[in-house]
Amino acid sequence: MSSISKKDGRLEGYAKDPISSGLSFEAFIPKDYWKKYGGEVFIMGAGGSAIAMSSYLLNKNKGDNVPSKLIIGNRSKPRLDEIQKIVKEIAPVPAEFYLTPETTQNDLILKNLKPHSVIVNATGLGKDRPGSPLSDACEFPRDSLVWEINYRGDLLFMHQALKQMEAKNLHIEDGWIYFVHGWTQVISEIFHVEITGTVFRECEKIANDLRGGNLNE
């Protein structure tokens, strides 16, 4: 649940993560990206954010514009089992699930990804706890998109990608746009206002000005 609010004498609860993560993906993944390049998705982490992202990416309304494969790595088995059960019911593409308590296990998966893939750090590492789900010896696939969904903390995963950005031609996003979309989606429900189009862009501009810009500026 992202929010609980009152409307017309009722209490209403909303889970906004699938919408917020989808809007965030759309902000940096080019149109028809999967259809054009056939890349894969590797999500590290198996919590609510990872489930929401998987649901968005594999939604049947995407037609044939979906990743060629979805790969999930997580350090604990119960959450991995839970996301596997959910994804197996909706996945129109091959999906693989790996127990990865060690960074070197994620490194190996990363190294074998296709070019033009999307790699996501959906763990708490780099925000709630210092560190990264990858080691410093990791090798990102060429021409890929890298998303660090955290926007505060040591952000080690993001800095590992930044070191390879030029050599591997990586596009790197931090979690700021995810935060802005998540916040505005919740505020929209609480105050019963529509925050889209120019209204959202103005909110984003104010947030970016207060923050001092974003990673790609």
Architecture overview:
- The chain has two domains: 1-30 and 176-217, no CATH class; 31-174, NAD(P)-binding Rossmann-like Domain (Rossmann fold, 3-Layer(aba) Sandwich).
- It starts with a strand and ends in a 6-residue tail after the last helix.
- It is built from eight helices and eight strands, in the order ββααβαβαβαββαβαα.
- Helix 1 packs across helix 7 and helix 7 (176-191) crosses helix 8.
- A six-stranded parallel sheet has the order 5-4-3-6-7-8, sandwiched between helices. Strands 1-2 form a two-stranded antiparallel ribbon.
- It is α/β, with parallel strands linked by helices.
- The longest helix is centred in the C-terminal third of the chain and has 16 residues, at 176-191.
- It is globular and about 55 Å long.
- It has helices at residues 17-28, 33-37, 48-57, 77-90, 103-111, 156-168, 176-191, 197-211; strands spanning 3-7, 10-14, 41-44, 70-74, 95-99, 118-121, 145-148, 171-173.
Summary keywords:
8 strands; alpha/beta; 217 residues; single chain; globular; six-stranded parallel sheet; 43% helix; two-stranded antiparallel ribbon; Rossmann fold; 8 helices
CATH topology of the largest domain: Rossmann fold
- What is the mean pLDDT? 92
Order of helices and strands: EEHHEHEHEHEEHEHH
| Assembly classification | single chain
| Poorly predicted regions | none
- Order of the strands making up the biggest sheet: 5-4-3-6-7-8
Beta-strand content estimate: 15-25%
